[in-house]
Amino acid sequence: MKVDAAVLYGVGEPYKIEEIELDAPREREVLVELTASGLCHSDDHLVTGDVPLPGPMVAGHEGAGVVVDVGSQVTRVKQGDHVILHPVPSCGQCRWCVTGRANLCDLGAFALTGYAPDGTYRRHLKGEDIGAFCQLGTFSPYTTVSETQVVAIDADVPLEVAALIGCGVTTGVGAATKVGRVQPGDVVVVIGVGGVGTSAVQGARIAGASTIVAVEPGEYRRRRAAEFGATHSAASVEDATGLVRDLTHGVMADVVLITVGVMHGELLGQALALTSKGGRCVITSVAPLAETTAAVSLFDFAMSNKRLLGHVYGEANPQDDFRRLVDLYRSGALRLDEMITQEFTLAQINEGFAAMHAGTTVRGAIRYR
Ligand SMILES: [Zn+2]
Ligand SMILES: [Zn+2]
């Protein structure tokens, strides 16, 4: 079928809206009519070149919609199901999936290639194959995806809200609860409160943190963080260091969550200085692939028994975690409607990312219907 899509041709270029040819689903694939797609910073790493762009690509990896067609062998969902897409597949068979670590599924290796694990493409433009970021390519109103990348949810949940669970919310809440293992009464610092960081603030609040410090240079996001559970805020890591020292009588934070747009080595030493003895420092943010150094006090790191944890996708097991997050949304504990601060049409996608960079959104989203 012919559909519009926002295609990224090269590093530093704006998205171009093109009419592409989208293939019908193969045996174990489904065709999804999307309701919305979030604008996530991970898409932007392709634009900046932090993450390699192998060729023309339909970006977008945070979406939800309705299944409109299924391949002959599909068993996980059926036509008419409301689904959230997930950027990391869960095959259910590899050693990672069968040990409850679906975020590390071996099929995740194809997230950046643009093509499916069998080496084929589902999208074509002017006779040439083009890729789909994370095999999803949600910057198009329709997408053909593997059934290993969809989870059905109840139809009462608004799909434009559910879309955020596909990436940012799952990553941020998981960073706080699964990786950071925030405990009741913990002091938590969240560095960077865009979509993922705001979700991390909510995860920390839901887990029972008594003090949540949001660190964010932009006044708008810093102010909004309070609505999601931040008890204090600081405009810089330096300011946060003094604040947390005062709040904790010098003990510092039990958990520090790094959720900035782009990770750099210099931030690591600062974040570890914010971390208490025996505390946990969690890196969520993507760093440029070429960056390989960080300045850290190794003496303090070992002698203070600190823990440094990386993770991808909030250690999510989508088949279980999406249901939990949907239930938390229904209960009112997880505030998702409030996170979508601006909606754009597909044609406005470049404006949407400009708003993300300007810090005038918590989460921007493309709305298809
Ligand atoms: Zn994302
Ligand atoms: Zn797997």
UniProtKB/TrEMBL annotation:
<keyword id="KW-0520">NAD</keyword>
<dbReference type="InterPro" id="IPR020843">
    <property type="entry name" value="ER"/>
</dbReference>
<dbReference type="GO" id="GO:0008270">
    <property type="term" value="F:zinc ion binding"/>
</dbReference>
<dbReference type="GO" id="GO:0005829">
    <property type="term" value="C:cytosol"/>
</dbReference>
<feature type="domain" description="Enoyl reductase (ER)">
    <location>
        <begin position="10"/>
        <end position="362"/>
    </location>
</feature>
<keyword id="KW-0560">Oxidoreductase</keyword>
<dbReference type="GO" id="GO:0046294">
    <property type="term" value="P:formaldehyde catabolic process"/>
</dbReference>
<dbReference type="InterPro" id="IPR011032">
    <property type="entry name" value="GroES-like_sf"/>
</dbReference>
<dbReference type="Pfam" id="PF00107">
    <property type="entry name" value="ADH_zinc_N"/>
</dbReference>
<protein>
    <submittedName>
        <fullName>S-(Hydroxymethyl)glutathione dehydrogenase / alcohol dehydrogenase</fullName>
    </submittedName>
</protein>
<dbReference type="GO" id="GO:0051903">
    <property type="term" value="F:S-(hydroxymethyl)glutathione dehydrogenase [NAD(P)+] activity"/>
</dbReference>
<comment type="similarity">
    <text>Belongs to the zinc-containing alcohol dehydrogenase family.</text>
</comment>
<dbReference type="Pfam" id="PF08240">
    <property type="entry name" value="ADH_N"/>
</dbReference>
<dbReference type="InterPro" id="IPR013149">
    <property type="entry name" value="ADH-like_C"/>
</dbReference>
<keyword id="KW-0862">Zinc</keyword>
<dbReference type="InterPro" id="IPR013154">
    <property type="entry name" value="ADH-like_N"/>
</dbReference>
<dbReference type="InterPro" id="IPR002328">
    <property type="entry name" value="ADH_Zn_CS"/>
</dbReference>
<dbReference type="InterPro" id="IPR023921">
    <property type="entry name" value="ADH_Zn_actinomycetes"/>
</dbReference>
<keyword id="KW-0479">Metal-binding</keyword>
<dbReference type="InterPro" id="IPR036291">
    <property type="entry name" value="NAD(P)-bd_dom_sf"/>
</dbReference>
